[in-house]
Amino acid sequence: MTMLESVQRAMVIAPHPDDEVLGCGGTIARLTAMGCHVEVVVVTRGQPPLFDAGQVEQVQAEARRAHGVLGVARTHNLDFPAAALDRVPRAELNAGVAALVSDCRPDLLFLPFIGDLHFDHGLVFDAAMVAARPLGDHYPRRILAYETVSETNWAAPYLVPAFQPNVFVDISEFLDRKIEAFSCFASQVHAFPNERSVETLRALAQVRGSCVSRRAAEAFVSIREVA
Fold this sequence. Notes:
Layout: E1 9-14, H1 19-33, E2 37-45, H2 53-70, E3 74-81, H3 90-104, E4 108-112, H4 119-131, E5 142-146, E6 167-170, H5 175-183, H6 198-210, E7 217-225
Parallel strand pairs: 1-2, 1-4, 2-3, 4-5
Antiparallel strand pairs: 5-7, 6-7
């Protein structure tokens, strides 16, 4: 039995729309194909004056289409201000994330990596770890941190934690589904050699797969596992 075969409920927490697809879209597709219930939490929403209202609506519509491609059962939008999470009281952010984790009761929780360049990612990681504290009978038994192109690999080397994956999920049969889901984000897809390109996502999946003799994989850092 693989690690995924024991999972009945999973939750992916994304700081911004598309982080969940970039980081673990193939794994989401594999889980839902196996009959797993997967929910996605998008923590932030672009707000004026930093973001145009029409652009925000477009990205949210793109996210809904992408989640439909992946088979996501439910999407939650917390609507905290994007690129301004440092202005939100920690208790408020923690409570918003904790309420959804408590409601979903995931066996497996996916988080952004703590060392990502965008400060929203680190704050979301911390809030999710508070929500996933191992208290009582119901808490996530497995927590994995995913990598996000143009965030995880752009952080300052040696000054922040390095992403050194120790869990690899074979997505050989689901890489095309991941690419299809990412392509739903017309406003976010860029031409190669931009990292947020179809070519880069495919190449990264192939590199991660070759690390474990698979055609394609997604890589994660294991944060906690309770057997």
